[in-house]
């Protein structure tokens, strides 16, 4: 196990090759949330800042937990060679389409249908470990189910659904998007 104060060029290259990552958050009195992510939605912005595009799904626990507590862990693991588990520890926040910094951040991503927010993480520590028990697996293809669902849904319908989801499953408040982003929201 090794710790680093920031992402190196080798770390960036590893992250860029990974098709999936995992996000973990928690808040006092709430359950731990651990979610897999994909869809070419992760970006390294600089040595201590990363961000990922969040597409609406079943819940919005990460938004609620970050507003309440701020702590976040992001994990990547190699399913090929060389074996590696890679964690980013830090504090995060949600940036929504109505926020002033949205346009600059959103320009870093390929638009995705159903985008509701971008999570920005200030990385305080990077950890690597062996990953020797992680199985070998290959990516067959990305699932298109969520993209197709959002592409078939009217933007006004999506906004109305999000407007009704103002709390997490544990009752914590959630800040919701009130406008759709250009290019990926329709």
From TrEMBL:
SUPFAM superfamilies annotated for this entry?
Answer: FMN-binding split barrel
Domain spans labelled Pyridoxamine 5'-phosphate oxidase N-terminal: 7-130
Q: What is this protein called?
A: Pyridoxamine 5'-phosphate oxidase
Q: Which organism is it from?
A: Sphingomonas aurantiaca
């Amino acid at each position: 196990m090794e710790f680093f104060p920031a992402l190196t060029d080798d770390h960036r290259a590893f992250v860029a090759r990974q098709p999936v990552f995992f996000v973990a958050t928690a808040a006092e009195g709430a359950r731990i949330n651990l979610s897999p992510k994909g869809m070419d939605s992760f970006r390294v912005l600089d040595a201590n800042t990363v961000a990922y595009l969040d597409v609406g799904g079943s819940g919005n626990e990460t938004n609620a937990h970050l507003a309440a507590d701020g702590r976040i862990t992001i994990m990547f693991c190699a399913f090929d060679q060389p074996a590696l588990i890679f964690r980013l520890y830090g504090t995060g926040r949600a940036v929504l389409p109505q926020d002033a910094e949205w346009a600059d951040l959103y320009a870093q991503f390929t638009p995705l249908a159903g985008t509701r927010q971008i999570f920005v993480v200030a990385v305080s520590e990077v950890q690597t470990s062996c990953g020797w028990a992680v199985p070998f697996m290959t990516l067959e293809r990305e699932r298109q189910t969520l993209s197709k669902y959002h592409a078939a849904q009217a933007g006004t319908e999506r906004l109305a659904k999000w407007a009704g989801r103002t709390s997490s499953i544990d009752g914590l408040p959630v800040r919701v998007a009130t406008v759709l982003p250009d290019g990926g929201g329709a």
